[in-house]
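Please produce the structure of this protein holding adenosine-5'-triphosphate.
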Amino acid sequence: MSDLFRVDGLTKSFGGLAVSRAISLAMAPGERLALIGPNGAGKTTFVNLVTGQLRPNAGRVVLNGEDVTSLGAVRRVRKGLVRTFQVTRLFAEMTPREHVTLTVLQREGKATGIIGRFLGNHTVAEEVDDLLDVLGLVEKADRPVGEIAYGQQRLLEIAIALALKPQVLLLDEPAAGVPSSETPRIEQALARLPASLAVMMIEHDMDLVFRFARRVVVLAAGAIIFQGPPAEVAADARVREAYLGNYANARRVA
Ligand SMILES: Nc1ncnc2c1ncn2[C@@H]1O[C@H](COP(=O)(O)OP(=O)(O)OP(=O)(O)O)[C@@H](O)[C@H]1O
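Below is the modeled complex.
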């Protein structure tokens, strides 16, 4: 299987603190990968390095065989490397349909000043409907975002990310801050993501991680300490010590 996306020796320090220690990782089209690790392990820093919010001290980011390390975040998005953030960045007064429509128009390079014309544009409207449907947001499509549940706001962020037509999608804690009553909705939506999309999810909810991912990568103190299928990761002594101890014990007792 050829790599869609790869990082080689990605390294970053903040002053004397080494936060990313020569991380190397590859993803194939359609992969479902979870990046886990304790608080401060360097997961968000890794995503920032991959997507161009941060520059590495050393190492490369390669997408479709092209070295994109010197490109800024916006150009990486145009090439298909897209992320969501831990905290939502939505406009409370705007509806989900407006958010997604604006994103599609932006992607297509249409001027927002003539948005009214394009809101009636059949192709754009159909694409927006499809995206809202994949994320289970059809019923709330025309409500102001400030009035919909937080879990649905998180799903809208994923819809916006998908509207950018990613090849690789990085989800930074999609269930963070979401009440447990709403996490099944997130799980259902994640199960409906396009099959060819490579998805990397950072998440602390281990039930969600183990159901979603086919491969789990464990980061501790800026380095990968283990990677493998969920069942093997949960059984690994180093991982239990670094991160999963409480989860594994809780499962044994349950
Ligand atoms: N801009 C920065 N300047 C200095 N230190 C930073 C900066 N960003 C992150 N750090 C430090 O780098 C380390 C890794 O942080 P990071 O946010 O990447 O971890 P994380 O694994 O995503 O943690 P969490 O699960 O809590 O979100 C932490 O010690 C953090 O304090």
